Backbone:
């Protein structure tokens, strides 16, 4: 299930909104463009055309990147992983981490419907996640007390997992690894892992 185009937001408005929300300074648009694979000449043309209009320069820079101009493909293409790499190379680590967090939450959200319909043995998963220190005993108790209704147990588990992922996006890896240890859930876990690895490739 290739969800990256759906959930990872590689639309111009989405990228602009994410960078603004995560605190990326627009004044660094020129350096960002270089690190994304745009040529200096391309960026100089943008600057000359929109002199003094920093937000417009940023928009045009990202538009060129999304259009895969210049050397964008050699820098990883126009996706959020290459954007994250560029941000890290500029020491904008906090922005890159927020971007990663956003992506992982969206991956979980994209799989939520399938998980809520197909997840097997939610109580065992809850206890395994507790053993991994991802869920609290209180969260496990909510899953257990939703018995005997499997759909209610699933929903209680997924609510707890979503809260954990929102707090620590790396929890999504723990969740998928646990899913993959239960034969009836391997395909669910693998689908999420595939989306995570697609983001990282």
Residues:
């Amino acid at each position: 299930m290739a969800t990256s185009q759906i959930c990872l937001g590689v639309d111009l408005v989405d990228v602009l909104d994410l960078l603004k929300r995560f605190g990326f300074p627009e004044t660094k648009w020129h350096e960002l463009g270089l690190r994304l694979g745009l040529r200096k000449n391309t960026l100089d043309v943008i600057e000359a055309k929109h002199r003094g209009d920093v937000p417009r320069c940023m928009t045009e820079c990202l538009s060129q990147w999304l259009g895969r101009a210049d050397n964008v493909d050699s820098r990883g293409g126009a996706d959020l992983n290459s954007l994250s790499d560029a941000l890290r190379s500029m020491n904008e680590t906090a922005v890159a981490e927020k971007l990663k967090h956003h992506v992982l939450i969206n991956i979980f959200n994209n799989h939520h419907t399938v998980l809520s319909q197909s997840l097997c043995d939610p109580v065992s998963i809850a206890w395994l996640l507790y053993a991994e220190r991802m869920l609290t005993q209180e969260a496990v108790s909510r899953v257990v007390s939703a018995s005997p209704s499997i759909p209610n147990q699933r929903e209680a588990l997924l609510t707890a997992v979503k809260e954990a992922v929102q707090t620590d996006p790396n929890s999504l890896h723990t969740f998928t690894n646990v899913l993959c240890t239960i034969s009836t859930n391997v395909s669910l876990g693998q689908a999420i892992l595939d989306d995570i690895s697609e983001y990282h490739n």
Notes: The chain has twelve helices and no strands.
